[in-house]
């Protein structure tokens, strides 16, 4: 069955794009008797579909940037394909929604990963991992927004597709490509058609929005962090705010989920789809030399790819979207961006959902279009539609069950310390509000022989390769929201420098896995054209019944106990104080379940994997976790 979305009602208003794009009256008012200027239509604060997608004007422009990333003595150019209402050729001025991507021309799926099994000898590289680009491109912007009076543009990121230059995985040179698109739409950058004719965006209001998922969502963050004038609103979905926090964690080399062994250089090779790619060999070789997979330290190469400190430059309103089950781009990337934007006074909105690395378009379609459409209408057309007065945060508590909040973490959240105490027989230990000293608890790292999932089962029994600490069964729900922290007194003796902590929900339940499944229901959301009917298949969350779930995890390279920028040797067997953060999360532990903290060294799917045998010894009582719990959480744990 196919269903078409309808949105109607009273209160129809037609306004010229020029009027809506600014707060000042439009220049050059239409004289009496002159042909009517094309107009958009606004109904109940929402732009309405009055233009034809089928008749849209298309053009391709090659835009000059300010950088020369391939070092050929010529400024790089980025290629942008624009679709806009045909009325823009008759005086209608419209804003533009840009989706910049390194993926428009596809990827190279045969690039091998770096070795992650550390043996003292040269290890074998891991096999390449292909990307599912269908998950990255929902593909609805033209069908939905062109009829509502927007231009939609697809931009090839630097070094990809029809652009020149070299991909450099997130640095300021790569940001210059997205910035140049905004500059061209504002008349500040030059652009040329394929035949070399210079072209200008005379139809553009200069107001620009950006949207996208993953790398496509990171490019809007990059452009916004540059402070470019004219970028009014962005919707970064599952996006990176610091590449260090994508490929590293607290001094340790760390993989994005599903891409063990990937790094800056591997990704640059994957997306290098420009003509004459050989010109980028030296540039990418320099990435390999400077990314430092030996120490994992934060350095200039990472500072150049860190946008969090640039939040003060952001002029765009930012709607942040992230999956709580996303272990590719981990939640920290969105949460630290969210917090930095708050400190900088940037208009912002947040969606946290139950999927993994995905856009909610296909399982919360109607509300996704309503809110993102209102976001762009508000900031690109200056329509006072009330979107900024709505609750700032949408959280998917369970599949299809959403709730709202004024901020995140939710007001009233308190940090509650829980001590990792020894059990009566040593292991497993207990997790309690009250510290209780006891004999040191030790484990032997399993190295590459066991995964985290294999190590957290049989939680009521001792296991030589992990330490477990558990609360009693809960009597009431306990909601965790924010950034949990670990503070351990521990020693390491062996080759692995990693400390890994898992926060686990123990209790059989049916929970979302992060994956989605098609429901078979077709929903039409926009105007169709040949080979694109403006419809999609609605999805639902895939769930599974299991006795546990890893709620969040955190990692530390013990040699970076004082700073991610500085490696300091540790003495084998000597106890040190270690502090680090888990990944942010929002999760409710149900009555009858138990909270568990599992302590490991190697985390098979994420860390480098040293040979088994490292001894980790933890001092109970003085070792703690700090959990951000909503009101009443501490009382449940008494």
From TrEMBL:
Domain of life: Bacteria
UniProt family annotation: Belongs to the peptidase S15 family.
Documented EC number(s): 3.4.14.11
Keyword tags: Aminopeptidase, Hydrolase, Protease, Serine protease, Signal
NCBIfam families for the chain: CocE_NonD, PRK05371.1-1
Residues making up the signal peptide according to the UniProt record: 1-29
SMART domains: PepX_C
Name under which the protein is recorded: Xaa-Pro dipeptidyl-peptidase
Sequence ranges assigned to domain Xaa-Pro dipeptidyl-peptidase C-terminal in this UniProt record: 373-628
Entry annotated with the keyword Signal: yes
Catalytic activity: Hydrolyzes Xaa-Pro-|- bonds to release unblocked, N-terminal dipeptides from substrates including Ala-Pro-|-p-nitroanilide and (sequentially) Tyr-Pro-|-Phe-Pro-|-Gly-Pro-|-Ile
Organism: Actinomadura fulvescens
Pfam families: Peptidase_S15, PepX_C
């Amino acid at each position: 069955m196919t269903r078409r979305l309808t949105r109607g009602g009273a209160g129809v208003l037609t306004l010229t794009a020029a009027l809506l794009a600014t707060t000042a009256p439009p220049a050059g008012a239409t004289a009496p008797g002159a042909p009517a200027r094309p107009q958009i239509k606004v109904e109940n604060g929402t732009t309405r579909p009055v233009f034809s997608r089928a008749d849209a004007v298309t053009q391709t422009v090659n835009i000059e940037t300010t950088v020369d990333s391939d070092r050929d003595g010529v400024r790089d150019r980025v290629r942008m394909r624009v679709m806009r209402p045909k009325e823009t050729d008759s005086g209608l001025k419209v804003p533009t929604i840009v989706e910049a991507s390194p993926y428009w021309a596809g990827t190279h799926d045969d690039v091998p990963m770096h070795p992650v099994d550390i043996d003292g000898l040269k290890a074998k590289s891991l096999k390449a991992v292909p990307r599912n680009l269908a998950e990255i491109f929902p593909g609805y912007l033209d069908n939905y927004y062109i009829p509502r009076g927007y231009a939609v543009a697809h931009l090839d990121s630097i070094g990809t597709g029809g652009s020149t230059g070299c991909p450099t995985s997130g640095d300021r040179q790569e940001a210059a490509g997205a910035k140049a698109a905004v500059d061209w739409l504002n008349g500040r950058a030059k652009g040329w058609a394929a035949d070399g004719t210079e072209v200008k965006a005379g139809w553009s209001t200069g107001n620009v929005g950006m949207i996208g998922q993953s790398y496509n969502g990171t490019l809007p963050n990059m452009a916004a962090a540059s402070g470019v004038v004219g970028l009014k609103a962005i919707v970064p979905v599952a996006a990176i705010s610091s590449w260090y926090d994508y490929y590293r964690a607290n001094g340790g080399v760390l993989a994005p989920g599903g891409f063990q062994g990937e790094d800056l250089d591997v990704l640059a090779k994957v997306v290098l789809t420009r003509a004459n790619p050989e010109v980028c060999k030296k540039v990418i070789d320099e990435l390999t030399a400077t990314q430092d997979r030996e120490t994992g330290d934060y350095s200039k190469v990472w500072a150049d790819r860190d946008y969090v400190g640039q939040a003060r430059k952001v002029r765009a309103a930012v709607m942040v979207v992230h999956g709580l089950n996303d272990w590719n781009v981990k939640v920290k990337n969105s949460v630290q961006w969210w917090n930095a934007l708050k400190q900088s006074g940037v208009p912002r909105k947040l969606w946290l959902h139950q999927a993994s690395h995905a856009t909610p378009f296909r399982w919360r379609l109607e509300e996704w279009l309503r809110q993102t459409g209102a976001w762009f209408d508000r900031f690109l057309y200056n329509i006072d539609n009330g979107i900024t007065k709505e609750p700032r945060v949408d959280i998917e508590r369970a599949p299809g069950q959403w709730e709202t909040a004024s901020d995140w973490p939710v007001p009233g959240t308190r940090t509650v310390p829980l001590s990792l105490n020894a059990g009566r027989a040593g292991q497993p230990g207990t997790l309690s509000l009250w510290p209780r000293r006891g004999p040191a608890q030790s484990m032997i790292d399993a190295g590459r022989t066991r995964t985290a999932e294999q190590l957290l089962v049989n939680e009521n029994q001792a296991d030589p390769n992990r330490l477990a600490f558990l609360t009693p069964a809960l009597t009431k729900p306990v909601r965790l929201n924010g950034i949990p922290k670990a503070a351990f007194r521990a020693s390491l003796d062996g080759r692995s420098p990693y400390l890994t902590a898992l926060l686990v929900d123990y209790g059989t339940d049916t929970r979302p896995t992060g994956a989605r499944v098609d429901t078979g229901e077709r929903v039409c959301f926009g105007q169709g054209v040949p080979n694109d009917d403006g419809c999609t298949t609605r999805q639902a969350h895939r769930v599974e019944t299991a006795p546990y779930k890893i709620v969040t995890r955190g990692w530390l390279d013990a040699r970076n106990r004082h700073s991610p920028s500085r490696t300091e040797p540790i003495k084998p067997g000597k106890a040190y104080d270690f502090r680090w953060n888990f990944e942010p999360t929002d999760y409710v532990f149900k009555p009858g379940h138990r909270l568990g903290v599992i302590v490991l060294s190697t985390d098979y799917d994420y860390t480098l994997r040293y040979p088994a045998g490292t001894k980790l010894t933890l001092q109970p009582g003085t070792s703690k976790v700090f959990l951000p719990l909503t009101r009443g959480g501490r009382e449940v744990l008494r």
